[in-house]
């Protein structure tokens, strides 16, 4: 163990451009969603570049799965910090996020210039979201709610989410599920893990936590006082980035509750963008760039994107120095089990509303959704291929309606 720690601490540090180059290559090629991203990261950073060892990488993944927000982006930020300090973390995020963010901004700006009320290809993008979210529910349920108790937590969460469709309702059930997990789910023995040196002081971590909580509490209050549209957008996306456990597709219901009811984005625009996200590499949270661009062009995209990912930076910086203590406590593992089961339920509710209710209107739509699901699950085609197929098929299906 001591040899391992020493090797990590004495490993030569890299440069910010080096981190940016490596992460940009991943941002251009990492298709397939959060789980696939972690596989790409492992191959690039552990096997090829050898910036960290297998155990250290597993520790980072465990930490980022525990935190709310996009786990794959947080792993990338953490590795960037390990390699080149805080600027390395920023460079890692920019490289991994920029390609998909720019692509989705352009897609949104193109959509704003056309009347797409009856566009068949756009409806095809909405339908493919049904297949993608169904695949996510299936995979997450098998790993995060595999037994009777956690399956029940997921089902109860789905019911409450459908009957109480608000961001606050989701936050309440997540907290409740975590408490239930800590009290009633079994405590597993946690083996000792090797320490990891990140070069972040505990004082910096505490400041980061204070800033994170201060913004989470203060932004809604400022929003009520100022009535600023920009502040409202920043607050909504910051809150989603702060409170979405499970990352990836789980962002769908929470962000929909923030942007559709106020009239910022229509249901059709929302689901079209969500379908388009499946066709680009990089993190699914760049969906925020699309939504911001629909609302307010380039400036809206930038505000929404920064607000969505800012919590990830603050949480990672605030947690890295304390992770060695937290991860060895069985109670935290039980709390996490309860939260993860609730995440499955939230995503299950989203599969019905808004995904299913907005996209499936007749047997043609359902047939296309089944075909897309089969291509994803049985034939294992890349998501971007299935998205293109669904857009073309949607245009054909529209001719029969």
Automatic annotation (TrEMBL):
The chain crosses the membrane at residues 20-41, 86-109, 121-141, 153-186, 206-225, 237-255, 298-323, 335-356, 368-393. Its main location: membrane. It comes from the Bacteria. It is a multi-pass membrane protein. Keywords: Cell membrane, Membrane, Transmembrane, Transmembrane helix. It is found in: Cell membrane. Signal peptide: none annotated. Belongs to the chromate ion transporter (CHR) (TC 2.A.51) family. NCBIfam families: 2A51 (TIGR00937). This is Chromate transporter. It comes from Paenibacillus chartarius. The lineage of its organism: Bacteria, Bacillati, Bacillota, Bacilli, Bacillales.
């Amino acid at each position: 163990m001591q040899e391992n720690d020493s090797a990590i601490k004495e490993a030569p540090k890299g440069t910010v451009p080096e981190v940016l180059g490596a992460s940009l290559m991943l941002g251009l090629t990492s298709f397939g969603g959060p789980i696939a991203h972690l596989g790409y990261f492992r191959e690039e950073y552990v096997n090829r570049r050898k910036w960290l060892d297998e155990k250290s990488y597993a520790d980072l993944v465990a930490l980022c799965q525990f935190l709310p927000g996009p786990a794959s982006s947080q792993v990338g930020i953490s590795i960037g910090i390990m390699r080149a300090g805080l600027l390395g973390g920023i460079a890692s995020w920019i490289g991994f996020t920029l390609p998909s963010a720019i692509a989705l901004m352009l897609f949104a700006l193109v959509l704003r210039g056309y009347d797409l009320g009856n566009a068949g290809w756009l409806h095809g993008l909405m339908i493919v979201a049904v297949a993608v979210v169904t695949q996510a529910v299936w995979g997450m349920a098998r790993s995060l709610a595999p037994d009777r108790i956690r399956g029940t937590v997921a089902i109860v969460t789905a019911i409450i989410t459908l009957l109480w469709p608000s961001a606050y309702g989701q936050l309440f059930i997540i907290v409740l599920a975590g408490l239930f997990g800590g009290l009633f789910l079994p405590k597993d023995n946690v083996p000792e893990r090797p320490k990891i040196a990140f070069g972040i002081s505990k004082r910096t971590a505490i400041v980061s936590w204070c800033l994170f909580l201060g913004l989470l509490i203060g932004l809604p209050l400022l929003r009520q006082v100022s009535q600023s549209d920009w502040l409202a957008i920043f607050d909504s996306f910051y809150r989603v980035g702060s409170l979405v456990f499970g990352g990836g597709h789980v962002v769908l219901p929470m962000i929909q509750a923030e942007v559709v009811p106020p009239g910022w984005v229509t249901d059709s625009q929302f689901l079209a963008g969500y379908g388009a996200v499946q066709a680009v590499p990089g993190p699914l949270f760049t969906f925020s760039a699309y939504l911001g661009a629909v609302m307010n062009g380039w400036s809206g995209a930038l505000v929404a994107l920064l607000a969505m990912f800012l919590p990830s930076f603050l949480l990672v910086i605030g947690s890295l120095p304390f992770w060695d203590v937290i991860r060895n406590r069985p109670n935290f593992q039980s709390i996490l089990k309860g939260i993860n089961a609730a995440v499955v339920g939230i995503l299950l509710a989203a599969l019905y509303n808004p995904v299913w209710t907005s996209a499936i209107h007749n047997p043609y739509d359902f047939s296309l959704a089944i075909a897309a699901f089969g291509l994803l699950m049985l034939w294992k085609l890349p998501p971007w291929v299935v998205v293109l197929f669904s857009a073309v098929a949607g245009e054909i299906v529209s001719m029969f309606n």
